[in-house]
Automatic annotation (TrEMBL):
It is an enzyme of class 2 (transferase). This is Leucyl/phenylalanyl-tRNA--protein transferase. PANTHER family: LEUCYL/PHENYLALANYL-TRNA--PROTEIN TRANSFERASE, LEUCYL_PHENYLALANYL-TRNA--PROTEIN TRANSFERASE. The lineage of its organism: Bacteria, Pseudomonadati, Pseudomonadota, Betaproteobacteria, Neisseriales. The gene is aat. It catalyses: L-phenylalanyl-tRNA(Phe) + an N-terminal L-alpha-aminoacyl-[protein] = an N-terminal L-phenylalanyl-L-alpha-aminoacyl-[protein] + tRNA(Phe); N-terminal L-arginyl-[protein] + L-leucyl-tRNA(Leu) = N-terminal L-leucyl-L-arginyl-[protein] + tRNA(Leu) + H(+); N-terminal L-lysyl-[protein] + L-leucyl-tRNA(Leu) = N-terminal L-leucyl-L-lysyl-[protein] + tRNA(Leu) + H(+). It comes from Neisseria montereyensis. Its EC number is 2.3.2.6. Keywords: Acyltransferase, Cytoplasm, Transferase. Belongs to the L/F-transferase family. NCBIfam families: aat.
Length: 248
């Protein structure tokens, strides 16, 4: 199987549909994780995914798992947690800590992480440009001091949010972060959330599989449309705590 190679002097990608039909979505190998190349990739439904020590690999999975925010399902158990548990959910309060925590998650069947140091720095760069966002869930300790308990991050282009990863240091923290992030993103104007691969966790929220052609049509329409309001930063939801500001 011959894999196209990318050079650093171009941001163009090989044909995505050929990659899906002939290489199970393996689009290309090589190149840098520059902000321009990443944004070009995401607008075409392509994302980087590789292990520490390997060259950069670019993928476009089909079918694609997406979540339409207005269809997001919050189960009864999580609804109860959202009502009764003390927490604060914020946006863009500590992106580096969130992506580092996601990199540190140990996942079944994986010995390492695809969120390499190179990837972390690349996405921090996107965050500084306003194209990558983090949502944080904070829990109070016995002294009422808020500590980072979970969260998620992703890339935003136009009205599309490309979810990348989530983590939980405490029970339910990533679920609370996601459940609060989705309605906030709707307020901002996000119309589709790319989940890349299907998981039981995302399926419980209402994710669904769609053909890549359908996904690409949505990208062509929505990535060039402005949000109703910027995703911004600050707190977006809280329950049963006095707001004194999160600690790192």
């Amino acid at each position: 199987m011959e894999i196209p190679f990318l050079y650093d002097d171009t941001t163009a990608f090989p044909d995505v549909f050929e990659a899906i039909e002939e290489r199970d979505g393996f689009v290309a190998i090589g190149g840098s994780l520059s902000a321009q190349r990443l944004l070009t990739a995401y607008k075409q439904g392509i994302f980087p995914w590789f292990s520490e020590g390997d060259p950069v690999c670019w993928w476009a999975l089909s079918p694609r798992t997406v979540l339409y925010p207005e269809k997001c399902h919050i189960g009864r158990s999580l609804q109860k947690t959202l009502r009764n548990k003390p927490y604060l959910v914020t946006v863009n309060q500590n992106f580096p800590a969130v992506i580092a925590a996601c990199a540190g998650v140990r996942r079944p069947g994986q010995s390492g992480t695809w969120i390499t140091e190179e990837m972390q720095q690349a996405y921090i760069g996107l965050h500084e440009l306003g194209h990558a966002h983090s949502f944080e869930c904070w829990y109070p300790d016995e002294n009422g001091v808020l500590n980072l308990a979970g969260g998620l991050y992703g890339v935003q282009i136009g009205r599309v949010f490309f979810g990348e990863s989530m983590f939980a240091l405490r029970p339910d923290a990533s679920k609370i972060a996601f459940a609060c992030a989705v309605p906030y993103m709707v307020e901002c104007g996000i119309e589709i959330i790319d989940c890349q691969q299907n998981t039981d966790h995302l399926a419980r929220f209402g994710s669904e599989l769609i053909a890549f052609e359908t996904f690409q049509t949505a990208l062509n329409d929505l990535t060039d449309k402005a949000l109703d309001k910027p995703i911004g930063s600050g707190w977006i939801a809280q329950s049963k705590i006095v707001l004194e500001g999160p600690s790192e």
